[in-house]
Amino acid sequence: MNRPWTLASSVAGAVIVALDGTALTVAQPSLQRDLSASFTEVQWTSTAYLVTVASLLVFAGRLGDRYGQWRVFGLGMLGFGAASAGIAAAPGVGWVIVLRAVQGVFGALAQPATLGVLRAAYPPDRLASPLAVRTAAIGLAAAAGPLVGGALVTGPGWRAVFLVNVVPALVFGLPALARRDRRPAPARTPLDLPGAALLAVTLACLVYAVTARPVSGAGLAAAALTAVVWVRHERRAASPLLPPELLGARTAGAALGILVAVSASLFGTLFIATYVLQRRLGLDAFHSALRSLPLAVLMVLSAALCPAALRRWGARRVTAAAAAALALGVVLLSRTTAPAGLGLAFALLGAGFGTVMVAATQVVVRAAEVRTAGVAGGVQQTALNVGPAVGVAAAAALLGTGTGAALLVLAAVAALAVPGARLLPGPAAAASRTPAPHAPVPAGDPERR
């Protein structure tokens, strides 16, 4: 498959998941009424997906590295579409919850592969541009999700929200699954099933603990315990789940920490902003979305401009400046409710997050060889699942102190990424880096080596 189709497939996989999540939020009240569900059951339509997908992302990335990114991507897309169709036909909320968990399994298969296929198709020094397109598309999907979801719920009903996924899943899933991989077969290293199981339990407990209301102390304790056991296992395993060269890369570790910090800050801030806009200012959901529209617009624009900025200033300066802008936006949001001030605050949030997404993701993915690109993608996606869950949990816990104080704490979380950016490569390192030995040649099949 050529590079344009590879990029289109990567974007489609990322957009389907982003659109599905944001549209579901709008559809949940209608789903609750139609299926006579309790509030707790409606919460589980989100929690079942989050827990499942977060626990399986890294292992799914390893499966892609072993059996082929396109094969795993195709299976994930088709399974995600099938589960979506099942939800649209579900007779009760119990079926919705179970199928959302199934959707999480296939979402976990598809998501790391959306980055793995890009790493295989593009040399390291050209990754920033396709990642920028992918990030911009996610921003558009996040902005369009509430509008699409609202239109579908108002018209055909909440079930149509899930049917939207079916056609793109078929369009991109079938060609990926039918594709013949012309690369030499990789060495079949063991999958480290004990390590995968320990990590899955750790992440499942962590995500469940921070999404529960109130936060589950038992879940956090279980996550901490299994994390210790997992780390000890990984140090002793002959073929660990996470490659030592990825974990040992200082730049990749710093980039992952930055992604967790900025995503926690952003999503925690958006959780609090809902209270500010709808309760303090008395705006309805539609007008609240209009006030926050600068976030989506600047996220798209900043992602588009980020590759040029990276070439000129390097990931270190670009990421530090973007994290500082995001922190400033959170501080401004804590100080003003004027329309102009809110618009500027949301614009800073979008510009900061869109830039960090492209810059930090590029550092993580290019630090990995092609043979471990799936695991790198899984780790990056895990950071972007754990960060928001922790941020929203922290925001909910801090609301009792007042929205202003809570937002200042979240601004401090974003500011932690500024010194962390010092560990990222500068412009000289980015310019001098040559494609890895496993990078594809420009001519012919983009993954032929």
UniProtKB/TrEMBL annotation:
Region (Disordered): 427-449
Main location: membrane
Membrane topology annotation: Multi-pass membrane protein
Keyword Membrane among UniProt keywords: yes
Transmembrane spans: 43-60, 72-98, 131-152, 158-178, 190-209, 215-231, 252-277, 289-310, 317-334, 340-361
Keywords from the named record: Antibiotic resistance, Membrane, Transmembrane, Transmembrane helix
Superkingdom of this protein's organism: Bacteria
Any Pfam family the entry gives: MFS_1
Subcellular compartments: Cell membrane
Gene3D superfamilies: MFS general substrate transporter like domains, Multidrug resistance protein D
Ranges of biased composition (kind: Low complexity): 427-436
Domain Major facilitator superfamily (MFS) profile: 6-429
Keyword Membrane: yes
Protein name: MFS transporter
Taxonomic lineage: Bacteria, Bacillati, Actinomycetota, Actinomycetes, Kitasatosporales
